[in-house]
Amino acid sequence: MHGSPDNKTAAQQRVDRIAAFHAELDALEQAGLLTIDPLQKAAITAYHQVLQQQLQQRFDVDLNQGSKQLSRGMQIVSFLGALALAASVFFLFYQYWGYMSTVLQCALLLAAPLLTLGAAIYIRRREQTGYFAKLAALISFACFVLNLSMLGQIFNITPSPNAFLVWGVYAALLAYALDVRLLLACALFCVAGFLAAEIGSWSGMYWLGFGERPENFLLPTLIAFCVPWFFNHDRHCGFVSIYRVLSMIGFFVAVLILSNWGAISYLRWPASIIEGLYQTVGFATSAAAIWLGMRMRWPQVMVTGNVFFALFLYTKFFDWWWGWMPKYIFFFLIGLTAILALLVFKRLREAQLKAVQS
Amino acid sequence: MKRLLSAAALLVLVADAAVFAHVLYNRSGEPRTVTLTERELPIPYYYSYNRDDNSGMNLRLQWRTASSDAKDRYWQYDRGLLLDEQSFLDLGFNPAPGCDSLREYRGGQRDLARQAWVAFEYDGSTHAKAVAQQRRQLQEPGIKKEELEQRTHELEQLEHRDTRLYVVGVAVDRDELTAQYPGALILAATIGNRFDCQQKYKIYVSNLLTDTIHVPAEYHPLFKDIPERVGDATWSPAYRVTLAIGKLAEPWLLKVERVTDAPP
Fold first, then answer.
1. Residue of A93, A173, A277, A278 best to disrupt the B interface, most CBs of B under 10 A
2. Is the Cβ pair A209, B112 closer than 8 Å?
3. HSE on the CB side for B111, CA within 13 Å?
4. Which residues of B touch A166 (CB under 8 A)?
């Protein structure tokens, strides 16, 4: 079929466009502004019906609002199910590993991620929606985490950050192969943890202390934010948002901590100067994120930038005023700043509308 | 998709192969062995609480550092180690400033814990000195009755129940430490700067990186019916464990024996 989408995101967008087209067509006909030859209309409707059926069969897209809501529900249920099943795998092994010989323990630990990976592949081939394959992939990841952590325990191996890298790569491979956003988030956490530990080790600290210097997370989160620029993610629905939003949260949380607690910085300046520096960085980068989100039409970047800009602002207000100001005035001022922000956004919206109209 | 999933399967195999190669390398050659008792390798206290959910078993290495202050009553809990200036600087730590300026010193300027090697002495002169110090503290004049009872109890603990494994040396380089303490048990640990303005070159040993020793299933029956230690005046170690320490300083359990006679 001409112009047929080649991934689920594009397919869903096409289906949404078709629904919007028919709704608007009906409205224009009812208003008496447009009249289409019934034969032509029937041909268009038939064409769209066939296209929708094909896209539904090929990509399991949602054809109406009710179906979309049910899909969202299935995503939540499969997320909770994956968490519960992963926990179940952990406890199952813990319950019985004490009765097994070391050879049997190792064999089971090795077999578990491979068998569940095989199950994910098998289910993916047989089931169209992919929910059950994703569930199996998440369990496979849990089995692999169990595999390395338990082998470490069994052989009394010194803890190493390399485990995080290996887990991250495994999660990323499964995420891209089976289109699992939750596994991409796991991969990002693991790889960012590994990079932060490595950066921390450069200063001589023991790697598990990487969380004690929030600056260790700045570079890994910036790298994660830039990944969608270098790799095309058109075939993977929602992956770009995961990269951008999670990396921004990691970056801004690190800056927020440093802007309030400069003493834990690598910088050897007085704490007040470090805090001032990171407050400036926090305001500048969150404002830049809002601008970037608007310019590039990345709504998730704009919203995350907004949330952290407000957090930086309110923590500053708290520092300045909470101690001495009556609480009703403090909250009144917070409310006023929210109204001010609304006015600014209204202006920006009007400017955008004018640009569209012109 | 096929290629990514094949890569995932390969990753599992390669990662596990790397772990087994690591273990084989650690256990190759002639390991250093040390025989300890329940005093040094007790079953962790949380074991009995976890039993319903976790059938696995491990032993926890108990250790301490020698007292650096003869009058310190609570040295057992200190885990500090007083070094000479050069050894302290070799570990990469910066000494604390004078006591006057310490208050203004920011937390961030304090050194974070780092990895090093620690050498242990088992049931040697350091333990004997600790017992002698405890005895001297018992004989200090003017001690009240309750305090005397407490100190007597502590001495009895130290002599008959507490660990006799003491950290005696620390270094960044394992070979250097082995040369300095030939035959000593050497393990990886995290150490920190005590940041003491009076004892500027004092560090603390935070954790051993491999202080939990897994007990394979074939040894589990030997740990059954271990008598309860709390409140038992006649308590003595119930088992003796031989640990092997491999090329990568990672320990494993070599032998377990039940002890029915007096402790070694």
1. A173
2. yes
3. 27
4. 11, 15
Residue B262: the pLDDT is 46
Please report residues of A whose CB lies closer than 8 A to that of B8.
Answer: 117, 170, 173-174, 177
| pTM, two decimal places | 0.88
Q: Can you say how many angstroms the Cα of residue B143 is from the centroid of all Cα atoms in its chain? A: 32
Contact (CB<8Å) A114/B9: yes
Is A206's CB within 8 Å of B115's CB? yes
Out of A91, A153, A177, the one facing B4 most closely (by C-beta) is A177
Chain Cα centroid distance, residue B144: 33
Pairwise CB contact (< 8 Å): B7 & A173: yes
| CB within 8 Å of A83: residues ≥ 6 apart | none
Whether the predicted pLDDT of A13 surpasses 90: no
CA B191 to chain CA centroid, nearest Å: 12
Contacts of A310 (CB under 8 A, 6+ apart): A341
Q: What is the DSSP code (8-state) at residue B217?
A: G
Q: Give per-residue pLDDT as tens, B83-95.
A: 999 999 999 898 8
Say which DSSP state B223 is in: G
pLDDT, tens digit, for every residue of A105-121?
999 999 999 999 999 99
Please write down the long-range contacts of A184-187, taking CB distance under 8 Å and 24 or more positions apart: A184/A239, A184/A242, A184/A243, A185/A242, A185/A246, A186/A141
Distance separating alpha carbons of residues A301 and A291, to the nearest angstrom: 9
Rounded to whole angstroms, the Cα distance separating A340 from A107 reads 63
Instruction: Tell me the three-class secondary structure of chain A, residue by residue.
Output: CCCCCCCHHHHHHHHHHHHHHHHHHHHHHHCCCCCCCHHHHHHHHHHHHHHHHHHHHHHCCCCCHHHHHHHHHHHHHHHHHHHHHHHHHHHHHHHHHHHCCHHHHHHHHHHHHHHHHHHHHHHHHHCCCCHHHHHHHHHHHHHHHHHHHHHHHHCCCCCCCHHHHHHHHHHHHHHHHHCCHHHHHHHHHHHHHHHHHHHHHHCCCCHHHHHHCHHHHHHHHHHHHHHHHHCCCCCCCCHHHHHHHHHHHHHHHHHHHHHHCHHHCCCCCCHHHHHHHHHHHHHHHHHHHHHHHHHHCCHHHHHHHHHHHHHHHHHHHHHHHCCCCCHHHHHHHHHHHHHHHHHHHHHHHHHHHHHHHC
Q: Helix, strand or coil for residue B119?
A: strand
Proportion of chain B in helix, strand, coil states, percent, rounded to 5: 35, 25, 40
Here the tokens at position A268 are: 């050897």
Radius of gyration of chain B (CA): 22
